[in-house]
């Protein structure tokens, strides 16, 4: 198990892929397909994603990327840019470029790259005065120092983090009212000299089996009430912590080749339910405790949600660009790129893409100092982006299905090009502007996006990534600066 002590010997910044993979061999308690996983780096359905992430971490060292993805800290260590506290508009744009480079490696199909949670940890560390308001547990100043210590620990050791925000649903109506069920929700059951004992479950840790540590924070949209004190906390612990186990869903990496399953063979990042079986969380790893009034606004008031939305907007831009490229490739191969109806369909996706790009540009160009003296992108364009994309992406998938039609299913496998029917495949799967193997490869890719299990998970992921759309829209309405606009109407009616 990873040393839970934050004062343990640290690395000196960015890790290699080999170091990351070695760190996963820590006897973590992972369950998948009905069995306990002995080694996630060798487990089918997990192994190739771990190898992909290892490659991404190696990229941080590559001369092509190192200056765009990393910075030298005050100690002379090279660390990931997502950990750097931005002090200028330039720093915000540098962060955006870094996020975008990470996103392009997977064309937006690896949702939980480390830069996402790195940004979250950075935000809390940059807003310790907020955490100092806490009075429970060891007190606010101690909790704030815990956060700073954890930030430096994660940054110096280049930890790959996941998080879990939401309690299991036992009663939907209670959940919407901020009431959590003692039957299933993660809660504090005991305090000790060493820390708190927690028991229950949390959803849904994307990349959980392949992360180094897990952040257990309050939800961004489901709020606790004053009588929910046992459910109010924020902490981080290693995945290999005693009593912690993860139950994985079915893997969408079915062992197919990169040709047959171009995305799912590489980017199956896995989601897991996290079970806490009387887990001890040391005091030094707790950042908020026993105060719903502090936990509820935490992501907003630390501006963590803004920095996380910034990373997400860059990711969605890369993903949308990929969709445009895929659609254009399909219609050019068949000679349909001159058809007015076809161009109209793809133009809609182009417009969605440019909308995300414009919102991202607006947010970065209007970056400004926050209440802590650090810089953040403008929130409103990013809020708009994260509310629009859950509707945009399913529409993109629908258009891709229309463009691909039966070709999304009527495709042979890579093996069919080297067997006794290969002549048939070569002859009957050509397109006007594409030979048969390239045509099959293109449509195998489109299949992985549009109709495979992996693709369907991606669509669901985009719908609910930040929470239920209705709650997100309600939050957007509450946040929006409406008073001046209402006054404008009132003044007009009084003329």
Can you put this structure into words, describing what you see?
It is built from 19 helices and 14 strands. By secondary structure, the protein is an alpha+beta fold. The chain folds into two domains: 17-298, Butyryl-CoA Dehydrogenase, subunit A, domain 2 (Beta Barrel); 304-493, Butyryl-CoA Dehydrogenase, subunit A, domain 3 (Up-down Bundle), CATH 1.20.140.10. The strands form four sheets. It has a six-stranded mixed beta sheet, with no helix packed on it. Strands 5-8-9-12 form a four-stranded mixed beta sheet. The longest helix has 31 residues, at 304-334. The radius of gyration is 24 Å and the shape is globular.
Write a short abstract of this structure:
By secondary structure, this protein is of the alpha+beta class. The chain contains 19 helices and 14 strands.
Highlighted features:
single chain; 495 residues; alpha+beta; Butyryl-CoA Dehydrogenase, subunit A, domain 2; Butyryl-CoA Dehydrogenase, subunit A, domain 3; six-stranded mixed beta sheet; four-stranded mixed beta sheet; 14% strand
């Amino acid at each position: 198990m990873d040393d839970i002590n934050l004062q343990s010997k640290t690395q000196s910044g960015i890790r290699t892929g080999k170091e990351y993979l070695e760190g996963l061999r820590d006897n973590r308690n992972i369950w998948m397909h009905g069995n306990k996983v002995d080694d996630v780096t060798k487990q089918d359905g997990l192994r190739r994603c771990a190898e992909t992430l290892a490659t991404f971490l190696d990229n941080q060292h590559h001369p092509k990327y190192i200056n765009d993805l990393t910075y030298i800290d005050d100690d002379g260590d090279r660390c990931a840019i997502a950990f750097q506290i931005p002090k200028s508009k330039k720093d915000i744009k540098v962060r955006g470029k870094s996020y975008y480079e990470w996103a392009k490696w997977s064309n937006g199909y690896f949702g939980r790259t480390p830069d996402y949670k790195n940004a979250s940890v950075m935000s809390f560390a940059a807003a310790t005065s907020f955490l100092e308001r806490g009075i429970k547990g060891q007190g606010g100043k101690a909790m704030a120092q815990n956060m700073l210590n954890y930030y430096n620990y994660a940054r110096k050791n280049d930890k790959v983090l996941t998080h879990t925000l939401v309690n299991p649903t036992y009663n939907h109506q209670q959940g919407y009212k901020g009431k959590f069920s003692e039957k299933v929700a993660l809660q504090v059951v005991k305090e000790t000299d060493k820390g708190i004992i927690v028991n229950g479950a949390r959803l849904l840790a994307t990349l959980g089996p392949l992360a180094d540590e897990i952040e257990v924070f309050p939800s961004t949209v489901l709020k606790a009430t004053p009588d929910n004190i046992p459910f109010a906390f924020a902490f981080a612990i290693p995945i290999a912590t005693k009593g912690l186990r993860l139950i994985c869903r079915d893997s969408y990496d079915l062992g197919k080749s990169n040709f047959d399953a171009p995305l799912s063979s590489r980017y199956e990042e896995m989601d897991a339910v996290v079970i806490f079986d009387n887990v001890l969380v040391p005091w030094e790893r707790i950042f908020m405790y026993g105060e719903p009034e502090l936990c509820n606004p935490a992501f907003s008031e630390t501006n963590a949600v803004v920095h996380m939305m910034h990373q997400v907007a860059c990711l969605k831009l890369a993903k949308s660009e990929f969709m445009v490229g895929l659609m254009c490739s399909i219609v050019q191969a068949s000679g349909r790129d001159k058809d007015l109806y076809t161009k109209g369909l793809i133009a809609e996706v182009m417009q969605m893409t440019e909308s995300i790009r414009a919102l991202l540009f607006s947010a970065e160009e209007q970056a400004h100092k926050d209440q802590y003296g650090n810089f953040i992108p403008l929130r409103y364009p990013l809020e708009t982006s994260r509310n629009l994309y859950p509707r945009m992406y399913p529409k993109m998938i629908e258009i891709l299905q229309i463009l691909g039609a039966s070709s999304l299913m009527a495709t042979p496998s890579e093996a069919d090009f080297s067997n006794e029917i290969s002549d048939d495949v070569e002859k009957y799967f050509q397109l006007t502007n594409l030979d048969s193997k390239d045509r099959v490869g293109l449509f195998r890719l489109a299949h992985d996006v549009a109709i495979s299990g992996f693709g369907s998970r991606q669509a669901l992921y985009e719908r609910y990534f930040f929470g239920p759309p209705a709650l997100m829209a309600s939050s957007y309405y509450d946040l929006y600066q409406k008073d001046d606009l209402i006054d404008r109407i009132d003044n007009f009616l009084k003329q």
